[in-house]
Amino acid sequence: MHRILELQNSSNFLLQYSNSFAAQVIEMQGGNNIYAKLTEIIIPVVFDKPVLNINIITTVPVGKVWEYGGKVRQVVSTALGNSITEESPLSLVERNLITFSKVAGDYTLRYKPPKWFIDLTIAIYQYDGSDTSAAEIDLARIEAKIDALTPP
Predict the structure, then answer these.
(1) Which of 17, 28, 110, 127 could form a disulfide with 51 if both were Cys (CB 3.0 to 4.6 A apart)?
(2) Total-model pTM
(3) E strands within 2-152?
């Protein structure tokens, strides 16, 4: 189903979460730091809209080109416990517009950084604007025409 979103209006995006993380230095070998891996981050926010904009920033070593920014998982609560419903890879090149399927109820996120990250900053914006589909607009038009034909 084709979604119709108002993505050009910055007031439709509300910052829900922002944080920075740094890997702990375990030891130094040959003048280089050895870092512990950053673990999966459970985002302590409950989201209620299916469209997010996620920005990932990390320190990229000189001479390296990194594009992969990890992955984000949508988690919903069910009668049997938490369940991952969708997973999306993230890019370091641009901000990431994530359009999850519409699920009934609220959800949380888990972010898994790549194992080579030694630090990261994450910012998650929730899209709070109009989210309709062409089918919903067509249905509204049909209902309006039916209402116009119905006597008062």
Answers:
(1) 127
(2) 0.81
(3) 3-5, 13-22, 25-29, 32-35, 41-47, 51-57, 68-78, 81-91, 96-99, 107-112, 119-127, 131-133
